[in-house]
Design goal:
Length: 107
């Protein structure tokens, strides 16, 4: 992310590649998008939500993936991937994690 919830060009390229691959299995998967922040950012809960939302918005606008495939999970700085103890780690925590699961038939 460039600032707050703005996707970088590198992020867009990565998401476009991922989205194009996910299109092949769109009927068989669910996608959780987990947003994180560092411990120093303002509006932490909202920011983690908007980071996740921007990823979902990009994938649904640029790939054949429908919104009902996605679940947005804002985690703010809770359970962040890295400790918030250095500037480098705080930058890494300004991120999203995407978890793809296969839908199972429970019939």
């Amino acid at each position: 992310f460039l600032y707050n919830w703005l996707l970088s060009e590198e992020g867009k390229t990565t998401l476009l590649g991922l989205g194009n691959e996910l299109e092949k299995w769109a009927d068989d998967i669910s996608i959780n998008v987990i947003g994180f922040t560092d411990s120093t950012e303002e509006n932490i809960p909202e920011l983690s939500y908007f980071r996740s939302y921007k990823v979902v918005e990009f994938l649904t606008n640029n790939c054949r993936l429908s919104e009902d495939k996605f679940l947005i999970l804002p985690r703010a700085n809770r359970l962040a991937p890295f400790p918030n103890d250095t500037m480098s780690n705080r930058v890494k925590n300004r991120s999203v994690t995407i978890i793809i699961t296969e839908n199972s038939d429970l019939d």
